Amino acid sequence: MRNINEDTITQAVLAAMSDCGNDRLRTIMTSLVQHLHSFAREVKLTQDEWLYAIDFLTRTGHITDDKRQEFVLLSDTLGLSMLVTTQNNRKPSECTEATVLGPFFVTGAPEYENGQDISNGASGLPCFVSGHIRGLSGEPIAGAELDVWQSDEDGFYDVQNIPSPGAEVQFQARGRLQTLPDGRFHFRSILPEAYPIPHDGPVGQMLDALGRHPWRPAHLHFWIKAPGYEPLITHLFRNGDQYLESDAVFAVRSSLVVDWIKHEPGIAPDGTTMTEPYYTLDYDFVLQPAAPAQ
Amino acid sequence: MRNINEDTITQAVLAAMSDCGNDRLRTIMTSLVQHLHSFAREVKLTQDEWLYAIDFLTRTGHITDDKRQEFVLLSDTLGLSMLVTTQNNRKPSECTEATVLGPFFVTGAPEYENGQDISNGASGLPCFVSGHIRGLSGEPIAGAELDVWQSDEDGFYDVQNIPSPGAEVQFQARGRLQTLPDGRFHFRSILPEAYPIPHDGPVGQMLDALGRHPWRPAHLHFWIKAPGYEPLITHLFRNGDQYLESDAVFAVRSSLVVDWIKHEPGIAPDGTTMTEPYYTLDYDFVLQPAAPAQ
Questions:
Q1: Which of A39, A205, A223 is best to mutate for the B interface (most B CBs within 10 A)?
Q2: Lower CB count within 10 Å: N or C terminus of chain B?
Q3: Residue A256 in contact with residue A99, Cβ under 8 Å?
Q4: Beta strand A232-238 with A257-258: parallel, antiparallel or unpaired?
Q5: Could you give the angle at which helices B80-87 and A23-42 cross, rounded to 10 degrees?
Q6: Mean pLDDT score of chain A, rounded to an integer?
Q7: Chain B residues with CB inside 8 Å of A83's CB?
C-alpha cells in the first residue's frame, strides 16, 4: 500500500476490501474495480478525459430529480438495463418476454375498472386494449394487477407535462386495473406514438456525439403482478414503426411487436359509436410461475 | 436490433456507434460498454442491485456541489484516480512522482511572497516549508508557480469550513507563490495532520460496507507549473503517519514520504523567535521537461 503505481493499484484496492463481511458486495465490488481499471488501462484514459467523465456524471446527477432519472436513461442507452433485464428473466419460451422498465414508471397511478378510459384527456387517437393474463398451462389468472402507462400523441408522458416547476402531476394515459375472473382485462386509451427520450441533458449530448438518435418505437408499458407468478415488466411495440430496428434503449424483442388494428368510424368494442377512426389491440400475456422460496 | 437478448445486446450497442465521427470517443465508449456489460454478466447483477446502483449514483450527484465533489471521492476511493494519474505521468525516476489531485483544490488561491505565512489563521502547529524546484540536470527553475494547500490540525480544508451555506470561502492554509531566481521557495504554514475524507455521504457508506476506513495520512499538496516543464501535481506525506499503509485513496508513493522535523522553541528559519515547538520541512522537486509539441 505504500508504494502504489499503475501496476499495483488494482491489487491494493482489492486487498483493502479484505475485511468486508458481505460476500455478495465483495464479489460485486471486486469485479467492478477490475473492469473499471481494465477500461482505464485499455484506453489509457487521460487526465482530461477523466475530468470530463467526473463532470458528465455530476451533470447527470444534477439534472436528475423526482420527475426525471438521467442515470436510468444512461443505463438504458448503454444497453445495461436491457442486459440486466434479460439475464434476470430467463424463462420458458411460452412465457411473455420482459423488457426494460424505463424512466417513466411512477407508483400510485389511478385505479380503473375494466372498460374505463385511462387516457384521462391525453391527446391521441382512441384505442381499445384488451387481452388475457394466463399461466403456463393456459389457466386464466383472475385478479392479476396491471400497471399500464404510455406517452401521448406528441410523445410525452404525463410526468413530463408539468405546467410549472414543482406542480403536481396530472395522471394521464396511466392507470392500474385488475383482471376479471376469466383472466381478461380491457380498457380504453390512446394510440402510442414513437418519441425521443429526453435528450436535452448529458445523455442527449452523449447520443449526439456518438452519432445516435434518441428515438424509441411506439409502445405501451405493462407491469403485471399476480400471487404465485413472477412479476412481468414489459412493453408491447407497434408493428411497422420505423424505429423498431434502432430503439435508443435496445428494448425490442420480436415476440413483443404486435399489430394495433385500425378501424373506420363505427361501433367500438365497448359499444361506443365512434365518429373518428380508432384502433384496437388484443394481446394475451403468459406469466411464469414464481420461483420456490429459497 | 429487433430481437435483443442477453447474448446480442453488447454487439447491438457497439453497432449503434458505427456513425460516430470521433474515433477517440468511439474507442473509449466501445471499451466502456464492453467492460460494463462484462461486469454485469460476471456478477449476474440483479434488478435490485441495479436499482441500488442507480440510487447510489443519484445520491452521489445530489450531494455534489461547488464545495464538495463526491464523484472525485468515489473515483479516488476506487483507485481510479491514482491509476489515471500514474499512467499519465510516466517519467524518468529522477523526477518527482505525481499523485492524485484530490477534491479540495480550488483555483484563485491568494498570492504570497516567499517567507509569508499562508496559514492565514488556520489552526495547527507552526511549520516552515522550503525547497527548490529544479530540472533533470539540476538546473534551478526561477519563477515556477506553486499552488500549495493543506488541511488544518482538525483535518479540515478551508473549503469545508463554511460558516453558513452559501457563504464565501475564507482561504486558509492555501496559497500561490513563485520560486526565487535560484529556484528556491519558502513559506510558513502549519503542520498537516491525518484526516478522514468526507464520509457522511454515499462514498462513506460504501467504505463502511466494505470494511474500509476513510483516513488519509497527513500530507501537503503541491501543483507546480513552469514554462518548458510538465506540470506536477503531487503531495508530500508525513513519515511515521499510521495511515501510510492504508491511505483511503491509495495515493502514497515511497518517494513522497518525508520527514517533518520537530524543533524546540527558539529562532525559526525566518528569524522569528518561537515560544512553542515548531516544525520544518525541506524538499526539492524535480520537474520533467515538457513533451515536444505534437
A1: A39
A2: C
A3: yes
A4: parallel
A5: 20
A6: 94
A7: 6, 9-10, 37, 40-41
Indicate the burial class of B20 (C-beta count within 10 angstroms; 0-12, 13-18, 19 or more).
middle
> In this structure, what is the dihedral angle of CA atoms B167, B172, B177, B183, given to the nearest 10 degrees?
-150
Residue B12, SS3 per DSSP: helix
Question: Chain A partners of B250 at a C-beta cutoff of 8 Å?
Answer: 1, 4, 9, 12-13, 16
Instruction: Tell me which amino acid residue B238 is.
Output: R
In 10 A of CB B35, how many CB atoms? 21
| Average pLDDT of chain B to the nearest whole number | 94
Q: Is the pLDDT of residue A293 over 80?
A: no
Count of Cβ atoms closer than 10 Å to residue B269 Cβ:
15
Give the CA distances from residue A125 to residues A110, A150, B30, B116, in Å, rounded to whole numbers and listed in that order: 21, 13, 41, 76
Between CA B294 and CA B292 the distance in angstroms is 6
Tell whether B41 lies on the interface with A, counting CB pairs under 8 A.
yes
Grid cell digits, residue B166: 452559501
Query: Residue B286 — φ and ψ, nearest 5°?
Result: -120, 120
pLDDT computed for residue B67 by the predictor: 80
- The shortest CB-CB distance from A2 to any of B5, B6, B244 is to B244
**What value, to the nearest 5°, has the Cα angle with vertex B218 and ends B85 and B252?**
30
Using alpha carbons, list the distances in angstroms from residue B233 to B169, B175, B224, B285. Answer: 23, 15, 7, 11
Chain-chain contact of A209 with B20 (C-beta, under 8 angstroms): yes
R_g of chain B, CA atoms, integer Å: 23
**Helix, strand, coil fractions of chain A, as percent rounded to 5:** 25, 20, 55
Sign of CA dihedral A61, A62, A63, A69: positive
pLDDT at B59 over 80: yes
Q: Whats the size of chain B, residue-wise?
A: 294
Which set of grid coordinates corresponds to residue A182? 376469466
| Helices and strands: H and E segment counts in chain A | 6, 14
Pairing of strands B257-258, B232-238: parallel
Q: Is the CB of B210 less than 8 angstroms away from the CB of A26?
A: yes
Residues 6+ apart with CB under 8 A from A234: A96, A97, A98, A99, A221, A222, A224, A256, A285
Identity of the residue numbered A260: W
Bridge partners (DSSP) of residue B127 are B189, B279
H or E segment at A147? strand A145-149
Per-residue CA distances from B19 to A207, A244, B26, B144 (Å): 11, 18, 9, 45
**Taking phi first (over 0 means left), then psi (-120 to 50 degrees means alpha), and beta for anything else, what does residue A144 get?**
beta
Instruction: Summarize pLDDT for A250-287 with one digit per residue, the tens.
Output: 999 999 999 999 999 999 998 999 999 999 999 999 99
Q: Could you tell me if A138 and A183 are in contact, meaning their C-beta atoms sit under 8 angstroms apart?
A: no
Q: Which three cell numbers stand for residue B274?
A: 518561537
Mapped onto helix, strand or coil, the DSSP state of residue A13 is: helix
